[in-house]
Amino acid sequence: MVEQRTTRALRLISDNMIWFILLLSLTVFSLAVQGFFNVRNFRNIIHHSVFIGLLAIAQSHCLISGNIDLSIESVAGMGAILSAWLCGASVFASGLQVNPFAGLLIVTVIGAAVGFTNGFFVLKFKIHPFLVTFSTYIIIRGLAVFLTGGRGVSQLPDSFRLVDTTKFLTLPLMVYILLIFYIFFYFVLEKTRFGRHTFVIGGNINAAYNFGINVDRHLFRIFALSGAISGFTGWLMTARAGGATPAMAMGFLFETLAAVIIGGVSITGGFGSLAGVLAGVLLLSSMRSALNILAISPFITEVIRGLLVLAAIVLDSVKRTVGRK
Amino acid sequence: MDSMSKRKVILKIEKISKSFGSVVALSNVGFEVYENEIIGLVGDNGAGKSTLLKILSGNFPPDKGEIYFEGRKVNFKSPVEARQMGIETVYQDLSLCENLDAISNLFIGREAYKNFLGFKVLQKREMERETIEVVNKIGINIPSVKERIEFLSGGERQAISLSRFVAWGKKLALLDEPTAALGVEQTRKALDLITKIRKQRNIGIIVVSHNLQQIFETVDRIIVLRHGEVVGIREKQLTDPDEIVSLITGAIFINDNK
């Protein structure tokens, strides 16, 4: 009995470990790094977390269902340059000057279509999602560069930037969008049948099939959701930057994967919670901020981030073996 | 037998054949299952038992032959269709999600939910209550229905797999090695449970097992498969383990499958 209670307590701690680590890190940074502990810096940290945070929601769904989507950063990059190209007025824009919100709709739908295509090859041709989305990762980035001949687009209408310039309590609207997304998708994953099926498929796809879950349809939705969120994230990036280049969101894939894994999502499927993922995103973001303030070489930042990912993976596998019979 | 002719045939299969490439898994298999009857399906490894169960549970179709369920001809395209008609299967691999708890596993594909603004919101409390009820019926203790399967022992896992049959078995249950991971005491409880549920619900049950002692304790009739063919159908009272072993190994060959 006692042993059982200890195991359970240990598991409770290890399941929420990431939040303890985040709090600890914030405390250490606040004490040790001058200029870290102030409202403006915290505001920056959360503002910086928006894009990786959204992409992390997409990737978490893919990983929990036992899949992976490498194309998220290219789709975000495509979403960024495409929406700028559609809505902007500078030389390399389309000249269409599309309404920014129509642009949002377009890039989100195109993102979903890319996701759907990923799903098609994964599910109908039975190709490993790593290979399929690796291909689309290259293709979509290529298309993004091709669209404007590799050049950037600026001169966006003011209305495009509203999502960043509108502020409540000094925080830009997009921060609230991030929080709403997290609350919404936390609810979906933990409380709805759709979320439950995501975990079932990631845990045992044969059981899912045997007990009548429409596995293909569900995974099509997951991939499409991932693409749609990624496309939307690209649009937000353009809104933030006031323009776009075809290189936007480069490197976001690894940053997202790092955040998601640190946040406790298992890369082999079936495990993870968006609460942990959000903590993982914030942890990486605050670490970057602290190292920035300290003016530490960005290359060392990479090393630290890599070590964090490794630690998260080790922790995950230790956690899996605690109390297992 | 007289009593049998009065009973309703729940499942009838005729001339079922199935090949995988050049390997013949089943050939011309036919028999009937009555309501309130437990059939023991026995045979050596590779005799075709699992293939037959998978056809009956809708995992794949036969190449040839007919399946009649409650008198109607059926062609299951998926396990869902079979399940919706009341055929519940307990798979040999248990089909459990190790990442989820007993409640979630019992309700895979059948989650209780309420519509809320277009969302199918899980009714977790209802599912928990029902799971506890079912687990109590089985009489095999598990630490908690909220414990993830990965933290449970082999016997506890099998109990949860069996709990699906207890919760959902309506007309016909297919149990593939239902006690393989259970200890002596647990096996006794599980077999009692199977017998009890058969009586309570008047359902037909096909049990696949390698354990002849268990078969003789539990079933009414025994069907022996050998190399994909039915080589014997015996009333339990009119046979003995020696004859069944002979049939399984091919020491005697009496084809009474018409």
Name the descriptors.
heterodimer, A: 325 residues, mainly alpha, ABC transporter involved in vitamin B12 uptake, BtuC, two-stranded antiparallel ribbon, 14 helices, 73% helix, B: 258 residues, alpha/beta, Rossmann fold, 2 domains, six-stranded mixed sheet, four-stranded antiparallel sheet, 9 helices, globular
Structure notes:
The complex is a heterodimer of chains A (325) and B (258). Chain A has 325 residues and is mostly helical. Chain A has one domain: ABC transporter involved in vitamin B12 uptake, BtuC, CATH 1.10.3470. Helices cover 73% and strands 1% of the residues of chain A. Chain A has helices spanning 2-15, 17-32, 39-64, 72-87, 100-124, 129-147, 162-165, 173-191, 193-203, 205-210, 215-241, 252-262, 274-293, 298-321; strands at 167-168, 171-172. Chain A has a two-stranded antiparallel sheet with strand order 1-2. Chain A is globular, with a radius of gyration of 20 Å. Chain A starts with a helix and ends with a helix. The model of chain A has no long low-confidence stretch (mean pLDDT 90). Chain B has 258 residues and is of the alpha/beta class. Chain B folds into 2 domains: 2-86 and 169-249, Rossmann fold (3-Layer(aba) Sandwich), CATH 3.40.50; 95-152, no CATH class. Helices cover 34% and strands 29% of the residues of chain B. Chain B is built from 9 helices and 12 strands. Chain B has helices at residues 2-6, 49-56, 79-84, 102-106, 124-138, 154-168, 184-201, 212-218, 241-249, and strands at residues 9-20, 23-34, 37-43, 64-69, 72-74, 87-90, 113-116, 119-122, 172-176, 204-208, 221-226, 229-235. In chain B, the strands form 3 sheets. A 6-stranded mixed beta sheet of chain B has the order 6-9-10-3-11-12, sandwiched between helices. A 4-stranded antiparallel beta sheet of chain B has the order 2-1-4-5, covered by helices on one side. Classes of the chains: A mainly alpha (325), B alpha/beta (258). The interface between A and B is medium-sized, with 28 and 30 residues.
